[in-house]
Amino acid sequence: MVKAVKFGLRSLWRDARAGELAVLLAALIVAAGTVTAIGFLTDRINQAVQRQASEVLAADVRLRSAQPIAPKVFATADRLGLNSARILNFPSVVYFGDESVLATIQAVSDGYPLRGEVRIAPNLGQAGTKVDAIVPSGSVWFDSALLARLDAEPADVIEIGASTFTIGAILTFRPDQSPGFSGFSPTLIMNIDDVPATQLVQEGSRVQHYALIAGPQASVERFISEFSALKIEGVRLQSRGDAGNQLNNAIDRAGRFLGLASLISLLLAAVAVAMSARRYAYRRLDTAALMKTIGASQRFILTSALTQILVIGVIASVIGAALGFAAERILTTILADLLQDDLPGASFAPFVLGFGTVLILLVGFALPAILRLGHTPPARVLRKDLLPAPTSAFITYGFAVLALGGLVYWSVRDLPLLLVILGGTAITGLVLFGVGRLLVFLLSKRTGRVGVAWRYGLANIARRGTESAVQIVAFGLGLMVLLVLTIVHNDLLRGWRATLDATVSNQFIINIQPDEAKGLVELIENEGLTTPELVPLVRARMTHVDGVAVKERQYDAPRGRRLANRDANLTYGNNLPASNTIVEGDWWGTIGSEKMLASSGSTMPTAEHHVSIEVEAARSMNIELGNVLTINVAGTEISATVTSLREVRWDSFEPNFFMVFSPSALAEAPQTYITSLNVSDEQRPALRTLVRAYPGVSIIDIEAALDQVRRVIDKAVLAVQVVFLFTLLAGVVVLFAAVQSTLDERRYESALLRTFGAKRRTVFAGLATEFTMLGFASGIFAALGATIVGGLAATQLFNMPLTINPWLWVVGAFAGAVIVGVSGIIATRSAVETSPMTILR
Amino acid sequence: MTTTNPLALNAVALSKQVTSPEGTLTILDGVSFAIERGCSVAICGPSGAGKSTLLALMAGLDSATSGEIWLDGTELGGLDEDGRAALRAHRVGFVFQSFHLVPSLTALENVMLPLELDDSDNPRTRALEILDSVGLAARTSHYPHQLSGGEKQRVAIARAFAGHPTVLFADEPTGNLDTATGDTVVDLLFSLNQQQQATLVLVTHDETLAARCDRRIRLAAGKLVASD
After folding, report:
1. How many whole angstroms separate alpha carbon A515 and alpha carbon A509?
2. CB of B59 within 8 Å of any CB in chain A?
3. First vs last C-alpha separation in chain A
4. Pairing of strands A580-585, A139-143
5. Which of A67, A568, A738, A769 gets the most CB atoms within 10 Å of its CB?
6. How far is A393 from chain B (nearest CA, A)?
7. Are the Cβ atoms of A292 and B81 closer than 8 angstroms?
8. A156-170, A589-603, B173-187: which range is least confident on average?
9. Is the full-model pTM beyond 0.80?
């Protein structure tokens, strides 16, 4: 054992000095480096992105209660070393001269916001800047709507309850401004210390008390569990997981993009390791045979080979992890500047991931080749053509699939993504192999009337049969993942970003009275803005489902009970909103009502009206197609049959509703209208005109919220681009490894050809032909694979429409031919340049 | 196992067949012979006669389809691959046409290798001693690629004799060398063989070389056609 280890180490050192280990080592270092760097980066980006999510709450955790929040809650936070702040939120009338407006007062304590930032501007229409302290006592910060409604200016003195305040600034952004449209009203921020003097908060006042908590994740989790143990009635805890839908979607997608990119890098690294390990083992066959001949046991051969592999693994991990760490430091510096906030410190996990990855790659992709070494027939010393029996497919692929599956799961923790990518890769691999064989067959028929170099090159492909097919698979897979990334990078990202482009609605107008509707639309048109579509809004409360009172029904999730038992905003209409998709049942606009009622399949008596419910809400409330819902609208009960369930893209920034009724149900009910508009910076003065003309309507500016989502997307895009570079590097190593695997044979052949009088140029041209043709074929079929995988990813994972990009095929074939041709020539250059004597001796 | 067995090698009705797409191919067909200790034997015959296969079977590098091989009193068919390797480590030395030195080891380390595998005492001292006796004392720290063909073969001979083998197999030992170097190497081979009283089994085309051996076994188309 010790002898075998010593022998292994000694040969390793010599092999290393002779440059024998270069490719395997490079493949492993790239793998470790890539995974470490991506791991660190993903880790940091994830943390940054999560922190961004926290901004919606202005904290990591937010507690809400109608009663003052018990001091023991704050004591718990304090004990765990967490920061905390308080908010009181209540409605009150604000007086300025003769004007008065009902506004939401947000009274905040020191430290607010714990996450995100508050921006204020000196006056209307000016850009906001970040503030570091809360509003000083005696001052208030108005939002633009409130200022417009009161027709006030900064520095004016206003009255709230028993106190007077000076308008200190215009509030342009606060992180916990809900991006939804309901419940919005003009807002001001004041210092919480000023609240008692207003005498507005008394026993029985409508006040919401908030506690904001933030700090290191572990402590926050600890706080959540300790808080639950306190069992305080009437306090609702919100963590960033529950934060706004738009951000949740964006973060989810960001995570998926990063996961996809790191997954692809892993796949490439694995391919490179497998190929270079195969060559490494192959180059050791002669020594293994000799060792057996002079008396070494199989165990000796295996022990020494495993020692070598293990040492290579450790060296590669250390170098790779160090490189990855260094790369990540540099990236962080670049990114931190662009992200405009400090990236949080990376955790130690990626380091372990780097080490683990190398070991798993070695076990999964190098071990089968190494194990084969132990079976080298000793008679190989007499007959070079003797090879060890191939390792069983079960071992070879079983190890590989297990290793890859484990790694991928550890890194992305996303089963559907894993299956789509592995499935796509496996199918493409098989198709490529079949096509590779087909190409080889075709080429073997086409060697007649071409020049000698072409004939030599094409003959090489044909003669190597299976090997050529394997190379097409390898090149093709490498190219495929690069192309998939290109699609992800360009098409998918562009598609995603397009959902939030500059024309998306950034203003919501609510509280439009029916008699104001016509005039308001005209005013908007006169101001040069796009004609808005007014959506009716009806306040109502659900009372019964199939005749059973809502309060008495069973709900699987607390969310269901909450949704069912609240005053809700409903709408009605004939057209399905653009950002909605029917997933069950039919929309009333598309079929006759009789047929629809029949198709609902319910045995319950059906109502003459129809309602469509958002699918998740319906499930949480245990409502199905065919149920009859009864709602109370201003004292009148109206019943409607559930005839469809909808999926709603909440991140579309359009007015969307959990429940949409057929017009017959609600057309006569008391209602207001809402609408959304896209208003550019230059068009902003129009909003002021609008507010002054219709003081009763409220304008909600969601530009800041949109900006927040865009920032998250931009972070993700940037990270994916950086990751893309690493993946490209891994891809190039794969190509080199593939070419290297046939280098010995090529050296020998080239030496023979030159000995027989072939010019160097001819040999070169032959090699160029071979690699270019291999690359061309690989490129074409990589494009096919990328289209399939990219399409699956787009439609199944990112919920975006499938786009077929014809350039992919052109780029695939061209890039394949050039990259494989050039790297083939670079890698085999030594074969042509070495003197034939050196090789043939 | 016995060290007093008068036969170094005994082949009994040895056959080797391989299956190929064209059908079964007989490479060796019922070959029997015995080789006494300390004698030198040349195995001759034209290409494809089965010489190398016979060598592989005698050294336990491959297994026979039927028949028996007794090497220094041990029947090889009763041993597994590791058992045969252990036997070779103890009793067998090899010299090949293409030298087969481990490229990553120096001349000294190449010679030490079988000694270390066999747990010999002082492998370094013994290796230096034998390298000196083949005239390579000055080349011990050289790697194979730094040595000439003749020098490589001398390292190989030193490695083969280092462990005092009972049987030494040589496969066309002069095949890759020019005549003058070949002669030097052959002289060395025979003189060491004599010194150590090993049994020398030599596969060769070279009739002059064959003539220097005590006995000649001739093969043609897998059959033993003459033995003197």
Report:
1. 15
2. yes
3. 36
4. unpaired
5. A738
6. 23
7. yes
8. A589-603
9. no
